[in-house]
Amino acid sequence: MSTKTDPDELLIGLVSISDRASGGVYEDKGIPALQEWFGAALASPWRMETRLIPDDRAQIEQTLIELVDVVGCDLVLTTGGTGPSRRDVTPEATLAVATKEMPGFGEQMRQISLQFVPTAILSRQVAVIRETNDRAALIMNLPGQPKSIRETLEGVRDADGKQQVAGIFAAVPYCIDLIGGPYIETNEAVCKAFRPKSAIRPPK
């Protein structure tokens, strides 16, 4: 059973995966970047649980399971550990705890990053659903750099602010609706959530 008590509140788990940051070699930048982005982007109630852990597959799996099954997170975002090096095991750990894969998120993340660097094709980010008997959560792997995190979530805009490539977060609120989570409203100046007309609720 989860510890979540308010069904209308979005509970977000943020997991930064880095041997060096978790060992105190340098300061983690992924979690602060995500905290700042959600503070600006979300217009409905939310709170977060954060974890800073090393590149260890068993520990990543255990952390993701804990955040969904015990803490009750509706959305879990990881940063780091998605490249081709031997220590990069975040996608394997994420797939291991999944009940459904959501390949469109990873495809779109790479599409966004390719607007900036050709090495985006080296990224192995995945997204999945983890379902328990009474609930479900969306788990997504994000890049490790704050600039890349923001671009991935918001998308790519031209010099006039017009969106050229959609960010992944535009689809997240409706995904959370479909798996039984809280209704998420966003600050449209940062990120406009897309829903079919039939799924849009009138403002309270």
Could you please describe the fold and organization of this structure?
With 204 residues, the protein is of the alpha/beta class. The chain is 32% helix and 21% strand. It contains seven helices and eight strands; from the N terminus they run βααβαβαβαββαββα. The chain has helices spanning 19-22, 30-41, 57-71, 90-96, 103-113, 146-154, 172-178; strands at 10-17, 46-53, 75-79, 100-101, 127-131, 136-142, 155-157, 163-166. The strands form two sheets. Strands 2-1-3-6-5-4 form a six-stranded mixed β-sheet, with helices on both faces. Strands 7-8 form a two-stranded antiparallel ribbon. Strand 7 and strand 8 (163-166) form a beta hairpin. Helix 2 runs parallel beside helix 6 (146-154) and helix 3 packs across helix 4 (90-96). It is globular, with a radius of gyration of 16 Å. It starts with 9 loop residues before the first strand and ends in a 26-residue tail after the last helix.
Quantity of strands, as a count:
8
Uncertain segments are none
Distance between the termini: 30 Å
Largest sheet: 6 strands, mixed
